Amino acid sequence: MQFLTIDASNTLIVGICESDLAAVKCIAVRESADTRHHVEYLAPMVQEVLAEAGITRPDAIIAGTGPAAFTGLRAALVTAQTLARAWDVPIYGISSLEALALAGSQEGANLIEAVIDARRKEVFALRARAMGADDIEVLVAARVLKPSALADELSGSPAIVVCANAELYPDEFTQRITAKCTPEVFTRLYLSRQGQKDAGAEIDFAVRPQYLRRPDVQAGNHAQVPATGNPYELGAK
């Protein structure tokens, strides 16, 4: 099978992976560090990886569900869902933090704190344990907090910080490695979870964005607090 992967949790990464039994190979990838023009870049990047892979459409799409900045995440997920409908192919949502944790485990980390920049001097973080070569166990779900607060947690319960950005709060996170949510990592994690689902496990592949706080446009100059539920649905508090 050939998978198109799209993730905007840190940089924008689009790729095509091919799976044959247990083997996964990335055959095309494009990356953009621009955080303001996802809408303009996504379609050309998808066209480029399809052309490089020599296909007109994938067999399925894997979309990173964040958490991430609202605008970039929304653009990536809307693009992924639109393409899935247009091509009539299945789409699967995978947590970007869980993918980052798996990327860290492939670098040798066992107990992992996956960290993505949340801006406004905060981070998104998720704690996980490596579970073989292709999966992780979530120990503490994704949350948003100050880097100093996470550093305090790590001082009492150590873990290797896995950052998508090499320059993200180096003074707070000293025991760290840098890794990326690559197309291969997303594909490996999806295949592992699909195998568990086939065996009877309850696995959710919903393409549901992880919004851990309200967007800046609703904030004014007031401090933000974590949202309850989806803050973009009517009645959310």
From TrEMBL:
Family matches, as InterPro entries: ATPase_NBD (IPR043129), Gcp-like_dom (IPR000905), T6A_TsaB (IPR022496)
Domain annotation Gcp-like: ranges: 35-167
Signal peptide: none
Ranges for region Disordered: 217-237
SUPFAM superfamilies given in the database record: Actin-like ATPase domain (SSF53067)
NCBIfam families the UniProt entry points to: T6A_YeaZ
Record protein name field: tRNA threonylcarbamoyladenosine biosynthesis protein TsaB
